[in-house]
Design a protein that fits this description.
Chain lengths: 393, 395, 393, 395
């Protein structure tokens, strides 16, 4: 599983890192968040110009055909630099679902996403269910040759800025929660009401009310069965992205803590001379590197369409959650007061980590999912899967 | 002593005196500090009742309650969602003045702390002196019957609301850094003082940096002898012995979790309170909190019987903070996606907007984030363990 | 909850400690375990002479009427000195059940226990259930005016040395596991087969086969309903005893580690000068003292017949298990190799702790039980129980 | 390289070569060491197959496999319940002689390690020199063409079975203690050597104390230059890089747990494998083990591509041991009361008595207890973290 980067991959990583270092200093991020824009439009356009918005899409869909390793490199850098722009929301979630859907309408939107002109959001969460696969109370009823959507969606990330929303709704007519199908809803459609707010990680989200929104027949991108399949394809890449972002956050928090403890003198010596501080840093490093191994493994399996990928994804999300929390909490602890301020960057890693934990299933949920997928014989998988990672390398 | 009757008396008073707005301020409190206006309103209500300073000797305005009564009072206040009072005057400076202040200082300052007329802040830490407090550099140079103070203090809680600050300042350079420190009382209105509020990770201001530029402080505002300020300051730590009320905080946290559990589902829509894995972890934390509560009671029972708490006092602080952090992390987990909306304004008891998160989850992230500071301030957990190790090992 | 000891209690604690220090040195314990006796008969007789075997029994039953605090003091000392004699098995379990039963037969056995002449054992565990309240496959069938017992019991502590066995068996006639009733079985009754062995903590136990053991009618001490009630009364004192023993073990392990790390020089200074070692010792102390608080609280509530006692007992067993494991594992770690040897005492605390964990419900089981008893509002109990510990002190 | 085919080849060989008794010895192995007789029988079988020293260069008897093949081989051996081979000759001394030995030493000793004729033990630690190995005191004084060795070694695994010992001895007193150490090969039959077996917590003997009283060792038995023994010994650590196989151990542990789960009930009679709380904790440990496995693969993949593992090598040891200890604790918990019976004799593959515990639980306590040593030997976890911190911080 040696993830030796290709020349192109190395160039990609370098160019992202260089761009963010030069144009995304923490001070600039603070200024942005002090304003009223949900994110930096100029940064977004720069992402488009760098080709990043086209990165994960197939060449047949106008994209660059980047694989999981490319996504890992990008998300890691975005996490390291605490980037708040809605790459995950617009490109990975909305874009990923559109790409899975295909068709003219989707192609047009995908083109807009890749050029930077169009923002999307994926509205799945409701009171009572926080996963895209959760049953939903939002209803889609056949009406006048099309659909009529009614319901409420919660914590829709990038929902306020989105030009279009991908909304899960049930076609069942009876009350209660039903299996979700997926509908394309223009942001400005009559009956769409959005109540925006910032989130703790510096992003934006909204509560979304669908008050009898009338949609054409083709607005249903997937029926319930098809949506389950489409989401399964998008999900593991989305998990990879979140995990890699968390990994980048750990890197940022760890590096800052090493630097700070080497420089900060208390009781006559740098903090990093205290054995307890040193060992804590070692434990942070251990957690970070164990987490990195799972993220890399997930990319490796995804790029090979390996059936083990969903299991590794569950493992990675669970582990990244624990590791990310440990590393970012201890980064604050070893800094002391300065890390509790808005003006210093290190505390912000903790807040993003906490939100990542809550997205697409938390640690407990993924541990249970891991057990289910491993079916009680997890670690023997490398022997049973035709020789493990090594047969196909 | 009929503690049951006492508990009922406290409860009856709280039922009546705590207005909905004050209770709301207590419910929305996510750190050591509740909404400032509500805090002071509650302070004044307790002052009128005579209950504002249970830990003070009765002759200075205390209640005369024993340690167990004080424990019960704290617990009932927390469980009734009373906002916390500011500790700087009542818990820190007051007892210190009672021990070290001149008669004039006591006569002038103590009544004003009790009434709430004076709001104090604490000028200890400096940018270069955190856990290593003794390395502080803010200088006070004698000039006639004044000290002239230059330097800066940081992590000064509530300095933007306070009208007075008590400070540690350097009055001599000595080999042992502790030996050249004095303790001063300073009026925040003195020319040369500037306050820079520091925005916290939660988007709100509790901490400040305070700059002193040629600030003239009358010599009679010194507490204790010149260069003896370290001894005076250390008394605060000693006074804290037996003054912890973590159990009450933990109960409030557990009640918050119970509210979330009753309302909130896991990502698949199953009630969190029915998830055996989550419940096992919650039970483990509850049991630790129970062990801590009985440790507090052991110490208080022992103090009442004349014993010295020794290392148990530091133990309570270290374990109390860490258990509190675990509970906040569990609350955050239970709140799920509802942890994400960031509306600092919604944490004011006077805000009338529509909150993005349901009420039971409104404070989850703020509590989690704010409480990371509990193992940092007042001596980081690492420093506390160093101190405990000295006690235990005699090395 | 100030557990200020009475003069008598202080004397008791002192005399136990003095006796064990003088007569139960670790070397003597090793010699005993190298032999074939299951425990030290002379030590047992000394316990009888000191009145310890009569300590927990009511004065009406010939005992000394010691309360929970006295039991705590005794068990703590036994744990600290790694005592292997079957006090828990004969006095607490078998004696406790007999005392709950009453009657002439029980009185005679109780007298024998208190004099040191009689050994008992409580045989409840089977494959498939390790608690006294577990349903059992062992069957008691009415036969010739009495009972006929058939089945197998597992890991019966002190079973080999026991003059009588208290055996759980179901009166239901159908197969499968049924609710346990309690039967008194003489050790030498025909059909009683015992296969003895030592246990990891230096005690002895046996597998017990009941091959159609014929018993008189009065051998049934409790029917199923009565047994449930009787066990509930014995259980919390038994849990107190185990917890106090674990606490004593932690004290022994902690004291040895402090002493060793202060004396052992590595890299030019005593181990206890290393900050990481010091902080570990602090963490061990924290766990030990938090655990002590729950054990003391349990004794306090038991001595007041407080209805909160079962909940505190569950909390204590769960906490003592985690704390005991943490302290004894780290005691070994901080000692290094020497603690992995049979000839040094500190490793033996770990083994006893591990067995205690498995007895009468492990940590996970007691955590679940705690939740059940607390009914979701645990820590508010002190306010709802009429003023908490303070009203009745 | 077709690793799948290689894996099948290994598996086929193991299917045939591992007798039931050898498999039993592997199943009953609870520490680093399996039953000695079975170990040596398996050693000889692998020797005959040519697979006894996969990590050695082919010219000295290695297999020529790449790191991935070696990983697969180790994993298959563990999962087939092969007993572990003794590492002292194959993993420690052999590679060291290949690097530092004279031609005569290599020609004499290497074939005897391969064949199993020589059984080596390692004389490093001393009663006063554990983690601080460089403070060792056993002296070797030159007397003609011999060294005369006096002193003692402790924690010498398998010394009661070994016919040879390699030792670090002090040949000079220097300011830097490491500078005066030499590396000697000693025949255990030399007069003046006494072995005291040390009974472990599990009631069995694996460790010994070895006493040297005027033991004469030919000078040609020194490896490396006089006083350069520390450098020679350190090479062992370097050689360990990439030589860890914790993943295979963890898989074997997980399989043991799975066996218990399938058979064993919790105290209420519910199958452990259906307890969501236990399963959540097991899953957490499994996921960490998986992360460690991929870390091993990262290192091995990187080594294969020429990279240096750096701090990751220590990471694997520290985390690998701690994960292993967690897994053993889970197995113990799952075994419930069945952990209690103590029958060290039942852990011999030749014992024919009736075990008190069911087969799946027979090793639970011994594994748990024995594995506490894994964070002590070969550099305690605390020392490993010190080393890692130096790497990471450059301080």
């Amino acid at each position: 599983m040696h993830l030796e980067l290709s020349e192109e991959q190395r160039l990609l990583a370098d160019s992202i890192e260089r761009f963010l270092r030069d144009h995304y200093a923490f001070e600039r991020r603070r200024e942005l968040l002090a304003g009223s824009e949900p994110f930096g439009r100029d940064t977004w356009q720069a992402f488009a110009d760098l080709g990043l918005l086209a990165l994960p899409f197939a060449e047949t869909q106008g994209g660059l055909g980047g694989g999981a390793v490319e996504l890992l490199l990008l998300a890691e850098a975005l996490g390291r630099h605490l980037v708040v722009e809605p790459y995950f929301e617009t490109v990975i979630l909305a874009g990923g679902l559109l790409a899975a859907c295909g068709g003219e309408r989707a192609a047009a939107l995908l083109e807009g996403i890749q050029s930077g002109a169009v923002q999307g959001a994926f509205a799945y969460a409701e009171r009572g269910g926080g996963l895209p696969e959760s049953a939903v109370a939002t209803r889609a009823q056949p009406a006048a040759g099309g659909w009529r959507l009614a319901g409420r969606k919660a914590v829709v990330f990038n929902g306020a800025a989105a030009d279009f929303l991908l909304v899960t709704a049930s076609e069942e007519t009876e009350g209660g929660a039903g299996a979700p199908a997926l509908f394309l809803v223009p942001g400005e459609a009559p009956g769409v009401h959005r109540r925006p707010y910032r989130t703790w990680d510096g992003r934006s989200a909204c509560e979304l009310e669908l008050a009898g929104v009338e949609l054409p027949a083709e607005a249903r991108l997937f029926d319930a069965a098809a949506f389950a399949g489409a989401w399964a394809r998008v999900r593991d890449r989305a998990l990879l992205f979140l995990c890699a972002e968390a990994l980048g956050g750990m890197e940022g928090a760890f590096a800052a803590t090493v630097e700070y403890t080497k420089g900060r003198v208390q009781f006559g010596q740098p903090l990093a001379r205290f054995q307890v501080v040193r060992h804590r840093l070692v434990d942070m490093y251990i957690q970070k590197e164990l987490a990195r191994s799972l993220v890399q493994a997930l990319a490796w399996h995804l790029d090979r369409d390996d059936p083990a990928a969903p299991r590794i994804a569950a493992a990675a999300k669970a582990q990244l959650s624990a590791a990310g929390r440990f590393v970012t909490e201890n980064a604050i602890q070893l800094h002391g007061g300065i890390a509790m301020t808005d003006e210093y960057h290190v505390g912000h890693y903790l807040k993003r980590q906490a939100v990542i934990d809550a997205l697409l299933g938390d640690r407990a949920w993924h541990l249970a999912r891991y057990r289910r997928l491993a079916d009680g014989g997890a670690l023997q998988a490398t022997e049973t899967e035709g020789g493990g990672p090594w047969t196909s390398s | 002593m009929d503690y049951g009757a006492f508990r009922r008396e406290v409860r009856a008073f709280l039922d009546e005196a705590l207005t909905p707005r004050l209770k709301r301020a207590g419910q929305l409190q996510t750190s050591v500090f509740a909404d400032f206006e509500a805090t002071m309103e509650w302070h004044r209500i307790l002052y009128r009742k005579g209950w504002v300073a249970p830990d003070w000797p009765p002759e200075y305005g205390g209640t005369g309650w024993d340690l167990i009564q004080r424990h019960i009072f704290q617990e009932e206040c927390k469980l009734a969602d009373a906002p916390s009072l500011l500790p700087m005057g009542l818990q820190m400076l007051g007892p210190l003045l009672i021990r070290y202040g001149t008669e004039a200082q006591k006569a002038h300052y103590l009544p004003r702390i009790l009434s709430g007329e004076d709001v104090w802040c604490q000028g200890y830490s400096e940018p270069g002196a955190g856990s290593d407090l003794a390395s502080l550099k803010t200088r006070a140079v004698r000039d006639g019957d004044h000290y002239v103070v230059d330097g800066s203090k940081i992590w000064t809680s509530m300095a933007h609301h306070a009208n007075r600050i008590f400070c540690l300042v350097r009055t001599a350079n000595t080999e042992k850094p502790q030996a050249g420190i004095s303790f001063l009382l300073v009026d925040m209105a003195t020319p040369g003082i500037t306050v820079r509020p520091i925005v916290g990770l939660d988007g709100r201001v509790e901490q400040c940096e305070v700059f002193f530029d040629g600030v003239r402080v009358p010599v009679e505002n010194r507490v204790g002898a010149e260069n003896q300020g370290w001894e005076v300051a250390k008394y605060l730590l000693a006074f804290e012995r037996g003054g912890h009320h973590f159990a009450a905080d933990h109960k409030k946290q557990l009640r918050r979790i119970a509210r979330i559990l009753a309302a909130e589902a896991d990502p698949e829509g199953r009630l969190r309170g029915e998830d055996p894995d989550f419940c096992a972890r919650l039970a483990a934390a509850e049991v630790e909190a129970l062990a801590l509560e009985y440790t507090e009671l052991r110490v208080k029972g022992g103090l009442a019987a004349g014993a010295s708490p020794g290392a148990l006092s530091s133990l309570i602080k270290v374990a109390g903070c860490e258990i509190g952090q675990r509970l906040d992390a569990l609350a955050l987990e239970a709140a799920g996606l509802w942890c994400a909306p960031f509306q600092p304004e919604a944490l004011s008891p006077d805000w009338t907007g529509t909150p993005a998160a349901p009420d039971h989850a409104l404070t989850a992230m703020a509590c989690y984030v704010d409480n990371r500071a509990s193992t940092i301030y007042g001596g980081a957990a690492e420093v506390q363990r160093d101190i405990m190790a000295r006690h235990l090992l005699g090395l």
